[in-house]
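User: Run a structure prediction on this.
Assistant: Running it now.
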Amino acid sequence: MTTQKMLGIWMDHTTAHLIAYQPEEAGNTEIAADDATQTKADAAGRGEHQMHNKEQQQQGEFYKKLGAEIINYDKVVLFGPTNAKDELFNLLTADRHFEKVKIQVQHADKMTDNQRHAFVRAFYSGSH
């Protein structure tokens, strides 16, 4: 009997907390986007268009890092307070490399580490 690898990702546009679900315990990893404040400071002398392009590039790199982790799982739930989870979901579902990964999206507010772990445990205990 093979066990499915399940992952919960609480995310916003700058940080993602990856919580690997295992019935007995959940592990936690954090991935952060490149610092957007540095981008804004660098762009003070440049145009708004260049600054926007740089932010988009950094967001793309952040999503690529997350995709590299997600590809290793069978089921993934994306949750968090912003639309970053929806943006990532749309990118992943458009990529054929992720067609075997069951990805779901849930809205959630800001959470503590314990709340994020409890959310993932409850989500997968309910067999979504």
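The mean pLDDT is 83.
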